[in-house]
Write a structure and sequence with these properties.
The longest helix has 28 residues, at 300-327. Strand 8 (228-231) and strand 9 form a beta hairpin. It contains twelve helices and ten strands. A five-stranded antiparallel β-sheet has the order 1-2-3-5-4, with no helix packed on it. Strands 6-8-9 form a three-stranded antiparallel β-sheet, covered by helices on one side. It has a two-stranded antiparallel sheet with strand order 7-10. With 372 residues, it is of the alpha+beta class. Helices cover 45% and strands 12% of the residues. The protein binds 2-acetamido-2-deoxy-1-O-phosphono-alpha-D-glucopyranose and magnesium ion. Magnesium ion is lined by residues 34, 36, 222, 242.
Length: 372
Amino acid sequence: MAIIEEKLPSTIDEILEAYDLESEMSDWGMIRAGHINRTYHITFRNGEKRLLQKINTIVFKKPLELMDNVVRVTDYLREKIAEEGGDPERETLRVFLTRDGKNCYCDSKGGYWRFYNFVENAFSYDSIENDDLFYRAGAAFGNFQSQLADFPGETLFETIPDFHHTYKRFLNLKAAAERNAAGRLNEVAEELRFAYDREEDTKIVVDLIEKGEIPVRVTHNDTKLNNIMFDSETKKPVCVVDLDTVMPGSALYDFGDAIRFGASTAAEDEKDLSKVSMDLHLYEKYVQGFLSTAGKSLTEKEIEFLPFSAKLLTFECGMRFLTDYLDGDVYFGTAYPEHNLDRCHTQFKLVADMEQKFEEMKRITADAYKNI
Ligand code: GN1
Ligand code: MG
């Protein structure tokens, strides 16, 4: 994906016209979080604020199916939240319908747009400022998963097939190396060796799922810390966002991906690898938070594989960045040519670090489980 300019979409007038809005737009800006969709905040003259988002149809090939998932999941969550005495307007997203009742608008250029409510007085974190915050993040994602425990997962569309099928991700990497589409193969021999050495790891969780040894659940599948909105004052989690990949999956995916991002001591694209490691204390906080809300519903087998899932999801993400680097940066948004390679390096550094700390991660997980 090319670098995105700060400007309104050329079709903004027709997009706004498609919705039954009470007042005119008075202000706007772009939100540069996330590597996939393009997001704007729009303010109207009556003071109302909304999020306008362009769905990336290279990544999400069936936007209507995706929107169907999002609407069904958020409708379901709204009811759950109300039952639990929460505030449904703040604790989950709301999709606004177009004048003709559709949950997104396809503009004259073929772009798909959706309008969400803007969660006021809330913000997201790109890194952990204090360890207790990460406990709360774990509790929020664990809670999200338990709120969806009875949702009929088989009715959801698979928005990205085999999203966390790590072995297929591995095979994709090998295929990208063979294609060498961007002519970058010579630069990445060491990174490829690192990945090829860990081929067997990529089969472990998918095998457990295929053999029925761990259950398929409705999971978020993109549990980056910045996919949680926190209240500006209380700093408590308000709602889980970025529901594009909510699909049947494994609890291990949600746990592992959260550790990958949040327990790292550095940013996902840090160039100075000496700054990158997995913080065991943060790991412990997240395990405790996650198990406080999801622990009772997890099986012993799932608990056993939590530490491994952290390594696995980190490795998977590193392979995906490397694949995209080899393909010429066609999937993730990048700000400079080596961006995906830098991201791959941080992920592989974290994998190596987790391998060193693995016994400790297992001990911490077992202790946290005993105490729920
Ligand atoms: C993408 O959109 P964003 O930034 O939340 C990606 C995740 C990756 C993540 C890496 C649909 O998430 O799978 O883990 O980047 N989302 C998709 O930062 O591919
Ligand atoms: Mg996302």
